[in-house]
Amino acid sequence: MTPYFPLKAIHIVSSTVLFGTGLGTAFFKWAVDRSRNVAAIRVVSERVVLADWIFTSPAIVAQAVTGIALANLMGYPLTHGWVVYAIGLYCVAGLCWLPVVWLQMRMRDLARHSDSQGTPLPSAYWLYARVWFWLGVPAFLSLVVVFWLMVAKPS
After folding, report:
1. Among 24, 28, 30, which Cα is nearest to 59's?
2. Helix 57-73 vs helix 4-35: angle between axes, to the nearest 10 degrees?
3. Model pTM?
4. Using CA atoms, how far apart are residues 28 and 73, in angstroms rounded to an integer?
């Protein structure tokens, strides 16, 4: 067996994990924030950070490694049209994701503190939540376009 099929399988599964975990955790984080229930926000925030470390981080690495390996196996230089756009958009998503993870950890810590003290969440939490949400928009859209590029492979 050639390495193409195992690499492609890992690439597809890791893209599913990356996109699915990102979309799922973002939805639950966004939804729980709307409740303003500090205890619920603390629990969901803790789980979102954990999910990013367990699922999203390894998927990001797997995507980069298998993507480069597949391009090489298929004879596409990394400077080829759609490949370079896919890499660029992947980097856009990553540059949005890094501050998102930092924000999630700060929000988790603020929620833990407020929950332990029995106080409402501070205004910093809500500022972080807005920035977190708006960083997710270009990250999500970038990955949608990357999926299209992977499937269509436009010339």
Report:
1. 24
2. 150
3. 0.90
4. 38
Residue ranges of domains in the chain = 4-152
The string of pLDDT tens digits covering residues 125-146 is: 999 999 999 999 999 999 999 9
| CA 107/CA 114 separation, integer angstroms | 10
Q: Is 36 left (phi over 0), alpha (psi -120 to 50) or beta?
A: left
